[in-house]
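Q: what sequence does this backbone want?
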């Protein structure tokens, strides 16, 4: 449990001052049109899962959980995208807490919406193919593979999942490794209920959304995120430049909006006093 409430932490993160920018619907439309053309060119050619006898093989039960996690990640991304689609929502409580007042502009808001959330919704999919080994050259270089990393060096203490881009660690293809702890995580309703009770219990969908932020094949090279912080207090305290490049901030914002949608609504100067 957090030492202070989630809402108190988020409110504190933006309490120093208000930063309100006039809404410009025309600008939103122009930016959306240009960015949608870029996203339409971004696609993965295949989705596969590693199966036994590979040490990275996923059981039927795990494959089912991965599929559910993808659905939950999309639900989180959809909530975030809907909030960011509201003109002026860069002035919302949630946006300024997790993405920073210095990034409160239409261009940044829409870049995050389109690349970090909309691209996930339109691109991420369950596995339709199976592979029985992970070698240096047997994975689709423009595809995504899910692997279950039980009992390997990929899952040291506390690691839930990890993602590697095509070419990383001499591997072909994009790959998401899911550790045993991933399959013990909560379902999404439990995460939302706990969030509203000022506790954080991550769901499998939350982790899946986080890992996708590391893959430029989905979010684009310009919006690919790294790992600066995991703890919510640290994520809220990051400099603004790092808030929009930290994968956990992307996931926390989505969870905040799913649990408390009104915190994504634009605020006026008077409401910040």
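A:
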């Amino acid at each position: 449990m957090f030492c202070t409430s989630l809402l108190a932490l988020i409110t504190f993160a933006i309490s120093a001052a208000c930063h309100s920018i006039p809404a410009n619907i025309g600008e939103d439309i122009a930016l959306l049109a240009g960015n949608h053309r870029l996203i339409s060119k971004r696609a993965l050619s295949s989705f596969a899962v590693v199966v036994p006898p590979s040490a990275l093989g996923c059981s039927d039960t795990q494959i089912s959980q991965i599929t559910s996690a993808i659905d939950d990640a999309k639900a989180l991304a959809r909530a975030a995208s809907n909030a960011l689609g509201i003109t002026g929502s860069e002035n919302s409580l949630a946006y300024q807490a997790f993405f920073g007042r210095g990034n409160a502009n239409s261009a940044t808001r829409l870049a995050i919406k389109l690349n970090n959330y909309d691209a996930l919704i339109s691109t991420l999919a369950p596995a339709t193919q199976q592979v029985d080994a992970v070698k240096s050259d047997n994975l689709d270089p423009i595809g995504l593979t899910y692997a279950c990393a039980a009992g390997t060096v990929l899952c040291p203490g506390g690691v839930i999942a990890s993602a590697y881009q095509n070419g990383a660690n001499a591997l072909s293809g994009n790959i998401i490794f899911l550790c045993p702890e991933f399959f013990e995580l909560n379902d999404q309703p439990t995460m939302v209920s706990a969030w509203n009770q000022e506790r954080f219990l991550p769901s499998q969908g939350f982790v899946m959304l986080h890992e996708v932020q590391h893959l430029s094949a989905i979010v684009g090279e310009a919006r690919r995120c790294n790992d600066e912080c995991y703890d919510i207090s640290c994520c809220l305290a990051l400099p603004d430049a790092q808030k929009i490049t930290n994968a956990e901030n992307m996931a926390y914002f989505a969870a905040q909006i799913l649990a408390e949608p009104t915190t994504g609504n634009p605020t006026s100067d008077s409401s910040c006093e």
